[in-house]
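Standup notes, protein team

Yesterday: finished cleaning the Acetobacter nitrogenifigens DSM 23921 = NBRC 105050 set.
Today: SRP54-type proteins GTP-binding domain-containing protein structure.
Blockers: none.

Input for SRP54-type proteins GTP-binding domain-containing protein:
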Amino acid sequence: MYEVCVVRNDGKDLEILERLLWHGVPKILASNFNQKYLQSSLCNIISFGKFSFLPGKSPIALVGGAGSGKTLTVVKLAARLKAGGAQPLVISVERAISIGARVLQAHMTQLNIQYFHAIDVSSLKLILRERKDGQPVLIDTEALDVYGADAHAILVEIRAIARAQLCLTLPAGMDAEESADIAEIFQKARTKMMIATKFDQSRRVGNIVAAAACGLALTEAGVGSNIVEGLRRLTPEYLSSRLLHQGDPAMLGREIY
């Protein structure tokens, strides 16, 4: 789980410490923040990153439990790439065609984006041969039983077959300790990155800090259902703004959105 380093807190830090605790950041973790310099503390305790979709880069495979927001996030990333002039290849990996896969296919058809459905990792390997000129590849994986005995093996297989970078989708607003447990499972399977979904639907986002502190780099936050504008970079500045805010995220308005 998250590592603990001792940082002295004095009375001046109390207000921000209380805000972190209000958000559900575990006390043992929150007490390690130098709350006078929240942004720099975030950078010291957790990592921030961004996706690279340069030609020839590894596919990005979104992984996570049921209802974690993988499919909608794939749609948003694909729409962003398309708007930027790229032609991504989008693949859904599921043993059966679910409602989510049908929704993904419908969006890709509307956006005129190349889409395939793979029933297993062997099919995925064949479909990846359709990749042209190192185009960006987004993979929407099947919902995972994160505590299942085969979870680790499934993640390792996807990463090996697709030579993909694994990115966990984790909803904001969950229990922080549970989120840290989930993040640790994925991190042990060499998942490197994380997207915080449902960031606009949660008042408390401390679980995202707890999960990221387990070794996953924060990349993006889901901030709306709009497929073009529904993602934004999750930077230290943006996250600290959310952590300093108590209440309905919609009340933040244009201040940080």
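Follow-up from PR in the comments: The chain has a mean pLDDT of 90.
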